Amino acid sequence: MSPPALQEGPRVLVVEDDDTIGRHLDAGLRSHGYGTTWCRTGQSAMAEIRTRTYAIVLLDLGLPDTDGIDVARALRADFPDVLIVILTARSDEIDVIAGLDAGADDYLVKPFTLTVLLARLRAHLRRRPPASGRQERPIRLGDLTVDTTARRCLLAGREIALRPKEFELLAVLARHAGAAVSREALMAQVWDENWFGPTKTLDVTLASLRRRLHQAAATAPDTTHLPTITTLRGHGYRLDPDQTGPGAEHERGG
After folding, report:
1. d(C-alpha 198, C-alpha 213), whole Å
2. 106-152 pLDDT per residue, tens
């Protein structure tokens, strides 16, 4: 009798034009239980992801038909819950920040080992919300509501579209509203306690979250009471429960 087939794990879309790297990723991920599809261009990847559900996209920035930054931006706009990990030979900080700001959740600079990639994926997948379990009551701070069970953020009843890591970061701060939360605690709770990357990822995500909250307050039809994310230099951040008005400053202390 043949052994039972392994249950396929999360599906991964590999977007990589280098044959050696692509084959290595495809074979390595499959050997660890992931279901994979390998595309060599940004255009084919965007077409493929519309044919089935993917949990993860491994995205090379140096694609032959388009810039990976543009692909990341399109993926995030159309598939807000997909985990995007950028694979890049561009080690300059400005390129990494551009990728993260375009919607990527993480990045790896080539060359990297399969072991590190797998550890990163496990860390991110552990942070995904469970399919079922204890429900938390929505957190209300002024006119802002953070519903962690439904993964919704509303300002005066109007939904704010947040990227996955932006929402998770806001949720941690909201659960500890009025209290200081260290950078280390935020990295551990939003990314993972075994995070390998730089904490610059936290700064980029925090800045993007601030912009989205500010834009939502600025376009609200009425005056809103919105929490403020305060920077605590040398330590971390604090969500101050209430601030009035669409023109209010959302970045105290830095």
Report:
1. 25
2. 888 888 899 989 988 988 887 765 444 445 688 899 899 999 888 89
